[in-house]
Amino acid sequence: MRCTTQKGSRVEKMSERKKVSAVERQKKRTRRHAAIVLICIVLVAALAGGTYGITRLLVHPKTGTAVSSSAVSKASTAKDSSTSASSAAAASSAQAFEVNKTGLTGYQALYPDLYAKTKVGQWKDAADKTVYLTFDDGPSDLTPQLLEVLKKNNVKAAFFITHQPEQQKDPNYDKYLKEIYDSGCTCAVHSACHNYRKIYASPEAYLSDFNNMYQILKKATNDHVAPFFRFPGGSNNPIMSTSTRKAIIQEMTRRGFFFYDWDVDSKDAQGADASGIYANSIRGMQEGGNIILMHNTSVKKATLSEVENIIQYGKQNGYTFKPLDGTLDPSMYGFSNQYFIPLLKGNPNFKLSTKHEARFASLLNNGTSVSGAGVSSAGN
Ligand SMILES: [Zn+2]
Questions:
Q1: pTM for this prediction
Q2: Whether the Cβ atoms of residue 371 and residue 346 lie closer than 8 Å to each other
Q3: Ligand 1: centre distance to CA 140 (Å)
Q4: How far is the CA of 88 from the centre of ligand 1 (A)?
Q5: Averaged pLDDT in 10-residue chunks for the chain of 380 residues
Q6: Residue 178 Cα to ligand 1 middle (Å)
Q7: How far does residue 233's CA lie from ligand 1's centre (Å)?
Q8: Distances in Å between the alpha carbon of 73 and those of 9, 146, 335?
Q9: What are the TM regions of this chain, as residue ranges (predicted)?
C-alpha cells in the first residue's frame, strides 16, 4: 500500500515535471519567436534607415524614384527598369550641394534659400534610342488627358511649368500640378510669367520670375522641384542679350541649377498641324535626337492628339521613353554651351560625361576666368 502510494506519488511528480517542462518549452518557443521577430524588425529598420539616408533628398515620395528633386517613373514596370537603374545611380552619388554663400553681393544675395538641394555630380550620355518627352507651358485643361495618355502607355515625361495670367485664372491650376506630380512625371521650372521682355531684362528680373515659379512648384511637389529648368524660347533666344545670358547662366549654375534645351522640335509652338507634329517628332527620333520639345497649353490639342501615335511609333521601333531626372548630360543639347561649360571647371557640383568632357575640353579649359561659386559678376 505504502509502496503503491510512493509509486503513485512519483508518477504524479513525474507528470508534474512533464507539465512544467512542457510549459517551459512553450515559453522558450515563444521567447525564440519573439527574438526572431525583433531581429527581423531591427534588420528591416536598419536597411530602410540606411537607404532613406541616401535617397531622401532625391526620391519622389509618390513613386519611389529619384528625381534629383522631382522627376520620374515608377520602378514597378519592366519598361521603367532602366530608369530605376539610373535613378539608383543618381541616388548613390547624392550629396549636398556645395556652395560658398559668403561675400555675396547684388543679385547673388537675393533669395538666399534659392539653391538646388542636391549635388548632381557626374552626368551621363543618353543610351541609344532613348527619348525624353518634354511639355512646356502647362499645366492646362489638357493636362489630365495628356497624363491619361502617358499613363495608358506607361510613359513618364517632364513638364516645364508656367504660371501665366490665363493659368492664374484657372481654379484647377493647383489640381493639375498635383496630378502631374502624383503621376510621377517631372515638375521643373520654365517661367512664371513667360514674358520674354520682362524676364530677360536683367539677371534680377530673371531670378525674381524663376523664384516665383520655384516657390509654387515647391509647394505643389512637397519640395521636390527638379534642379534643372528650361529657358522660355531656349537658352539662345534672341531677346536675351549676350551679357544677360552669360550672367543668368552663371548665376543659376552657381545656385546649382542647370538647363535643358532640346534636339527635336515638334514645332507645335510654330503652329504645325497634327501630321506635322508627328512627322517632325519621329524624324527627329530617327536622326538620333533624344529630347522632344512639345507644349501643353489649352490650345495644343493637335499635340495631345499625336502623343500616343509618337509613343507607339517609338515603341514599335525599339525606342525607350524616359523622364528627365537630372542625370542626363545637358551639354548634349545645350544651345549656350559656350557660356555654360566654362562654368563647370572646378565646380564641385557638376561633371560632364566622359565623352563630353573630351569633346568640350577647350571650353572647359577656358573656364579659368570664372568659378562655380562666389562669382564676381553681381550687378553686371
Ligand atoms: Zn515656353
A1: 0.76
A2: yes
A3: 13
A4: 31
A5: 46 51 61 57 42 32 40 32 37 70 94 92 95 98 98 98 98 98 97 98 98 97 95 97 97 97 98 98 97 98 98 98 96 96 92 95 73 32
A6: 20
A7: 6
A8: 74, 16, 27
A9: 34-54
